[in-house]
Amino acid sequence: MKSKRSATVPIIGCIIIQICVGILYMWSVFKTPIIASFDWSKEAATMVSSYMLFAFVAGNLIGGFINDKKGPRLTSVLGITMFCLGVFLTAFLTKETINLMYLTYCVLGGLGSGFAYGAGISCLQKWLPHRKGLASGIAVSAFAFSTVIFTPVSNALMDAHKVDGIVSFQPVFITLAVVFFVAGIIGTFLVRLPDEEYLRQLPAAPASAKVYTGKNCTLGQAMKTVPFWCIFLEILFINGTWTLSVPLIVDQGMRHGLTEAAAVLTLTITGVFNAGGRLIMATVSDKLGRTNTIIVLSVLTLIGAGLMIVGVPGFGFAVAICIIAFGYGGPASTNAAFTTDFFGPKNSGTNYGVAMLALGISSILFNTISAQFLKGDFTKTYIMAAITAIIPVILMLIIKNQLKKMKAEA
Fold first, then answer.
1. Which residue intervals define the domain Major facilitator superfamily (MFS) profile in the entry (predicted)?
2. How many C-beta atoms lie closer than 10 Å to residue 15's C-beta?
3. What are the domain boundaries of the chain?
4. Confidence band of 174 (pLDDT split at 50, 70, 90)
5. For residue 110, what are the contacts with CB-CB under 8 A and spacing of at least 6?
6. Domain 2-409 has CATH 1.10.10.10
7. What average pLDDT does this structure show over 70-96?
8. Quick one: 165 exposed, middle or buried, by C-beta within 10 A (0-12, 13-18, 19+)?
9. Closest residue by Cα to residue 344 from 252, 222, 201, 208
10. Roughly how many angstroms between the first and final C-alpha of the chain, as a whole number?
């Protein structure tokens, strides 16, 4: 009993940290008020989420190296500190210096968020190696659930510091930075790795999820395999629909017949579906298998993109966005377990950090194509999104074929 209870404290610590750094998905809440308050262009503001997401995956990579060498506690402390410093410095921007948000909120905040996010996933996978999908799901669903908690909090803070439609963001971001720092640092004190005695008492992983090659691969060894690049490309494409949707949820929701309040509520609800996809599908993947789970999520994402193409109004728009959020959430946890399945837990921070670079590329690539080549056309953008949702199915079939070869050679 003692060893089983010992996992509770670090799990709670990781959850607290993930909730603190999860406002990565909340840019739609701040975007319109910041445009109005700082006279910033819509195009410049739209790119904030893409740049922050790119910094976030870079943080996963850099933090992954540190995590594999120094452990999750130090990595989490560094992540929380950078993230909160980025939010804090953003509070002091003016109309003349607003472009520095790319450095404070995007780069510094994004890197810190990535440090803490990757460390949390790696830590929980080590505590629950027999349920890697569930472990990843707990970590990344807490990250997504931050939107549910802090969207109303952020709106309340902005309303409290708004005069004639203009928000004074200094107290808003200072308050958020202080809250995140205090809670996040408390969370880091709870984080630790399991000992060998604890690990020896754990049951084996379900056979349906077990595709582990039997050795811990270095990054160089992992990158020489077909599955690594299939996972990399799957991350690139399956996230395309969501990264295209994030900056549009509130604005397009209103254009599709929702009130402003309903559009903001839709954004909040996407946090629930995002978190639900991460937790539910990660747990499902332990039984259904990673490849089958990704195929299911790709089909859901395709359905969401299809609803956008036909232009569903009002409540239908909200449903479509929630389907897309669920389809995006599932791979976020499944891929972390997927990478560890193939390449082992020892270098999981580094291996998954490199694979996650695909998410950063995705965030900039598809938004740039939409803005520059499709001229922001809504229908054409979601036709592209539908195509990106089909490709992961093909990649999973390739991995299935690789698994058959591995079993035949064993």
1. 6-404
2. 20
3. 2-409
4. very high
5. 24, 51, 52, 53, 54, 55, 56, 58, 59, 86
6. no
7. 96
8. exposed
9. 222
10. 37
